[in-house]
């Protein structure tokens, strides 16, 4: 029981410290922060800052319209239905779909794509069967039926459209890089 006065004094000290801390915090929160003031007034900091993008434009997908303006949406791209395969840009790219897929239902009960693309049906419809990867689970085990993670085909495969690219792109696939190298060596 001799420690009781000590505990009371300690509690008092903590209380007073907390009160002072609270008062100081309130006072400083009313004043503007010195750091922020410096950042807006100091010319040295202003000159190193990145230049603002011209005309409020933030990216090419907005087709040059300022961010505070709404522009008419572009027309929907036309889906090509030409049965012409497009080359893949890189190995393991999901190939684009060379036919239209309007009203092809994919849900819990049926998968229209598999009507033609399942291994069992592919010959009847002359469709390329889905590759073995579509039958593998995440532990690389082969399943008898399509893997659940490959069930929703449109997650990875898209139709081909006549849409123009939204942003500039100078991607070159590995084949054109390799043939360029060979041309250089030949010269
Ligand atoms: C009526 C049968 C049929 C249905 C249904 C069908 N396809 Fe096809 N698919 C084909 C045929 C046939 C081809 C071969 C190219 C062609 O003739 O258009 C093909 C080609 C493809 C290819 C190109 C493969 C490659 O190697 O380039 C992809 C990808 C594809 N289909 C995905 C789909 C997806 C996804 C669905 C469902 C949304 C679907 N298909 C529904 C018949 C079908
Ligand atoms: C998680 C992504 C993904 C999903 C979902 C998916 N695929 Fe694929 N698919 C790919 C990739 C990647 C390739 C190319 C490499 C390969 O064969 O695995 C491919 C290849 C194909 C091919 C070409 C096979 C070949 O031998 O050239 C066809 C046809 C195809 N998929 C159809 C389908 C159909 C139909 C479905 C739905 C039942 C589907 N895919 C679901 C990623 C996917």
Task: Write structural notes for this entry.
This protein has a domain at 4-50. The N and C termini lie far apart (98 Å). It is built from 6 helices and no strands. The chain has helices at 4-30, 34-41, 43-48, 112-117, 122-125, 174-186. It is 34% helix and 0% strand. It is mainly alpha-helical. The protein is elongated. The longest helix is centred in the first third of the chain and has 27 residues, at 4-30. The structure holds heme C (2 copies). One heme C binds next to helix 4. Residues 92, 94-95, 111, 113-114, 117, 128, 130-131, 133-134, 146, 150-153, 155-157 line the site of one heme C.
Primary descriptors:
187 residues, mainly alpha, 0% strand
Let me know the average pLDDT.
79
- Broad shape: elongated
| Percentage of residues assigned to helices | 25-40%
How large a portion of the residues is in β-strands, by DSSP E?
A: under 5%
Structural class by sheet pairing and helices:
mainly alpha
Indicate the radius of gyration in whole angstroms: 32 Å
Spell out which ligands are present: heme C
What characterizes the major β-sheet?
Answer: none
């Amino acid at each position: 029981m001799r420690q009781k006065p000590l505990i009371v004094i300690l509690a008092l000290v903590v209380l007073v410290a907390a009160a002072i801390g609270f008062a100081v915090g309130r006072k400083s929160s009313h004043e503007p922060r010195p750091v922020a003031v410096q950042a807006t007034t100091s010319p040295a900091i202003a000159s190193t800052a990145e230049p603002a993008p011209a005309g409020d434009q933030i990216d090419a997908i907005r087709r040059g319209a300022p961010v505070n303006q709404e522009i008419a949406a572009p027309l929907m791209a036309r889906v090509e239905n030409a049965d012409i395969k497009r080359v893949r840009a890189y190995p393991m790219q999901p190939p684009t779909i060379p036919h239209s897929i309007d009203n092809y239902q994919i849900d819990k009960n049926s998968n229209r794509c598999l009507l033609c693309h399942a291994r069992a049906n592919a010959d009847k419809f002359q469709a390329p069967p889905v590759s073995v990867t579509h039958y593998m689970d995440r532990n690389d085990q082969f399943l008898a039926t399509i893997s659940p993670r490959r069930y929703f085909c449109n997650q990875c495969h898209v139709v081909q459209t006549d849409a123009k690219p939204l942003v500039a792109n100078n991607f070159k696939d590995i084949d054109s890089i390799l043939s360029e190298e060979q041309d250089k060596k030949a010269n």
